Amino acid sequence: MATARFRLYPTTVQEQQLFEHCAHARFVWNLAVEQHSWWTPRRGPAPSFATQCRQLAEARAEFEWLREGSSRVQQQALRDFWQAKKNFFARTHGRPDWRRKRRDEGFRIADTCKAQKLNRHWALVWVPKIGWVRFRLSTNALPDAKSYRVTYRNGQWHVAFAVIPDSIEPPGTGELVGIDRGVTITAALSDGRTLNCPQPSAKEQARVRKHQRRAARAPKGSAEKAAEYAKVARIKAREVDRRKDWVEKTSTELARRFDLIRFEKLNIRTMTASAKGTVEAPGRNVRQKSGLNRAILAQGWGQLRLRTGQKAPGRVEDVPAPYTSLRCSACGWIEKNSRKSQAEFVCVSCGFACNADINAAVNVAAGYAAGTTPRQRSSVREPRPARAGILSPDGGGGCQLLILNPTAGARPGA
Fold first, then answer.
1. What whole-number distance in Å separates Cα of residue 242 and Cα of residue 247?
2. Which of 302 and 372 is assigned the larger pLDDT?
3. Given pLDDT bands bounded at 50, 70 and 90, which one contains residue 208?
4. How many C-beta atoms surround the C-beta of residue 380 within 10 A?
5. pLDDT band (50, 70, 90) for residue 19
6. Distance CA 399, CA 387 (A)
7. 157: closest CA among 51, 26, 14, 286?
8. Using CA atoms, how far apart are residues 335 and 323, in angstroms rounded to an integer?
C-alpha cells in the first residue's frame, strides 16, 4: 500500500474546521492511550474497541463541543489506535504514544472517499462537516482510493490517498543491474553510472545554522524560539520533498529499464543507531556517529529500495553486503588491501582497477554470496582466515582457490 500525496488549499474558514477535526482526532487518540497506560493485571483488562466506541458515543451525547465534530473522524481515530496496537504486538511498529498539538496534526477518513477533478491542475476532495476542499493535482488522473489522510505540517496542508500502486511492466530485455548504496555516492550502478540524491545547498545549510543559533538564544517557551524553529522546519521540509521526488523518478527509471534489480542488503536501522550508550557505559565518538547517521538518512536508501520494490514486484532482490566492497569483480579475489580509499579499488591479485563503488555494484549484480548455486558458491568462496591464495580458472568457467602460504592476506608471490 502506498500513498498519492497532494497539496491541499483550504479557505480560511475550512482551515479552522480542519484544525478542529485534528483536535478531536488527537483527543480521542490520547484518551485511548491513557486508558491503556493505566492497565495492569491487578486493575483488570484494558477496555476493548467495542467498549471504547460506546464510551465515545456517550461522550458525544454529553459534551456539545465533541458532538459538533465529525463522528467519522473520531471513530477512525479509535480504529487507527487499535491498528497501532496490533502492529505493536506484531512487533512491526513501536508502542502507540501521545500525540501533541502542532506536531501531530491530522486525521483519516476511511470507507468514503469522494474526489472530483476540476481541470488538469486542480481537484476537490469531500471532507465530512466541511465539504469540498481544493487540492493541487500533480498527476493526470485522480487516484482510485477508499481512504485518505489529511495532515498539517510546516504551514502546509496535504491530503494523501491510500492506493495500491500500479506495477511497471518489465522491458523484456533480460538486463539486470546491481546497486551499491553509499554516502558519497548515493547509488552506484553496475553499468557504470552513479546517482546522487539532492542535498541542501551551502546557503540553505547556513540559514539553518543561523535560525538554530537564534532559537538557542531566545527565551524558553517564547514565540521567538517557536518562530525560528518553524523556519528551520520549512527548510528541512523542502529537503525532504526534493529527496522524495528524486526517489520517485529514480525508482521509476530502474523499474522501466531493467528486468532484474539487485540491491546491496543493508540494515539501515542498525547502521543509524545512536552511539551515546548509557550512563554506566557511555559511548565513544558520539558526535561523529550522529553526523554519519544524518548523512546516511539524507540519502534515502530505504525509500529507494521500498519504492523500487513496489513498482517492480518480484523483480527486486537483496544481496548480502559482506565482501561486496572487498571482492575483485574481475578475478573474484577478496582482500581488504585492495580497497585503497573510498573511491579507489585496485586488486592486489590481478591488478584490476576501477571505482570502488562501481566494483561493489558489479559484485551485487553477480549475486555473490546469495542466490547462487552450491557449485558457484564453492567457486567464489571466501579464503580461510589462516591462509591466503589466488583464484585461477578451473577450466569450466569458474575459479579454484590455490593455497600459497599460511600467512593470511599475503600477496601472491610474496
1. 9
2. 302
3. very high
4. 20
5. very high
6. 17
7. 14
8. 9
- Whole-angstrom Cα distance, residue 33 to residue 27? 10
Strand partners, 388: 405
Distance CA 390, CA 405 (A): 11
For 147-181, the pLDDT digits (tens) are: 899 999 888 899 999 887 778 888 888 889 999 99
CA distance 96 to 240: 25
Instruction: Give residue limits of the domains in the chain.
Output: 2-163, 176-319, 322-405
Q: State the burial class of residue 6 (Cβ atoms within 10 Å of its Cβ: 0-12, 13-18, 19+).
A: buried
Report H helices in 63-200: 64-67, 71-89
Is residue 399 scored above 60 in pLDDT? no
Reduce the DSSP state of residue 43 to 3 states and report it.
coil
Which pLDDT score, from 0 to 100, does residue 29 have? 94
Q: Are 4 and 143 in contact (CB under 8 A)?
A: yes
Please tell me the pTM assigned to this model: 0.72
Nearest 5°: phi and psi at 381? -65, 150
Closest CA to 391 of 301, 330, 307, 342: 330
Residue owning grid cell 488538469: 120
